[in-house]
TrEMBL record:
Keywords: DNA-binding, Transcription, Transcription regulation. Residues 132-275 form the N-acetyltransferase domain. This is AraC family transcriptional regulator. It holds the Pfam family Acetyltransf_7. Gene3D superfamilies: 3.40.630.30, Homeodomain-like. Residues 9-107 form the HTH araC/xylS-type domain. InterPro entries: Acyl_CoA_acyltransferase, GNAT_dom, Homeodomain-like_sf, HTH_AraC, HTH_AraC-typ_CS, MarA-like.
Length: 275
């Protein structure tokens, strides 16, 4: 296992050093001495992205930084990011950041969507309720750093309005967070009045570790005991919401009601009380 992790970390470092160069499975296979198939499986299981997707997300993340903090022409940034044309770059960038490179530069607001992956053995530990605490105002920056990373998983998210609602949740003691080394790796906002989960997100580096389940268990056992709990998410078949919707389905939520929120088609899901 240790040898595997060493190889993964070696490849992550190699990717960082060669983001502007061609990176493919053949080259990686030579470095790790694994077959392409074996490496592809190990990398995907560890990082939760294929090599191609991870490299693309890292390049686009760095491109976003260049768009905001430099005046380099967009075509130069496109070529530096491995795209043969500005049109191809614009298409890929818009899929990740939901804005064209021009609009993103004009906003003057950089936020990371794929930082360098750092493997941490403690990620394998199932987090229990004792790791989850009530969020305080001092946690807002860490909370919003995670929101920026996962914002594309949530329909109709307007950052300014979200921060206002987050402060209300903190005041009402209905905001939960898991902090590790000053980084939010899991966040949840819920409503006592509506018996609902208003927001639930897990850092991409820590997914499939039982964190979402731990949040839900704590809310059911300590805050909304004996209540049916609802959540609003993307509708079935919406390509942007598959990950989020799948998470709630695995947690036992069922289809309830189709809605339109912020002009976007969504669906309310419900988890019935076991009491």
């Amino acid at each position: 296992m240790n040898n595997t992790l060493e190889n993964i970390n070696k490849i992550i470092d190699y990717i960082e050093d060669n983001l502007t160069e061609e990176i493919n499975l053949d080259t990686i296979s030579e470095i790790t001495h694994y077959s392409k198939y074996h490496f592809h499986r190990l990398f995907s299981n560890t990082i939760n992205f294929t090599l191609h997707n991870y490299v693309q997300r890292r390049r686009l993340n760095e491109a976003a930084k260049l768009l905001v903090f430099t005046k380099r022409p967009i075509i130069d940034i496109a070529l530096l990011s491995g795209y043969k044309s500005q049109q191809a770059f614009t298409t890929a960038f818009k899929l990740l950041y939901k804005k064209s490179p021009y609009a993103f530069r004009k906003s003057k607001e950089y936020y990371p969507l794929q930082l360098k992956f750092v493997f941490d053995n403690s990620k394998k530990t199932l987090l229990n309720k004792h790791n989850i605490i009530l969020a305080d105002y001092k946690h807002i920056k860490a909370w919003m750093d995670l929101v920026y990373i996962v914002k594309n998983d949530f329909p109709g998210l307007i950052v300014k309005d979200y921060i206002r609602l987050l402060k209300e949740h903190i005041y009402n003691k209905s905001a939960l967070i898991i902090i590790k080394n000053s980084i939010a790796i899991g966040i949840m906002g819920f409503s006592y009045k509506n018996k609902s989960i208003d927001f639930l997100a897990v850092h991409p580096d820590y997914r499939q570790k039982g964190i979402a389940k731990a949040f839900l268990k704590k809310v059911i056992n300590e805050f909304l005991k004996g209540s049916d709990i609802t959540v609003t998410t993307y509708r079935e078949g919406d390509k942007y919401g598959k990950t989020t919707r799948d998470m709630y389905k695995k947690l036992g939520f069922k289809n309830s009601k189709l809605l339109i929120e912020f002009g976007y088609p969504t669906e309310k899901l419900i988890k019935k009380s076991s009491i």
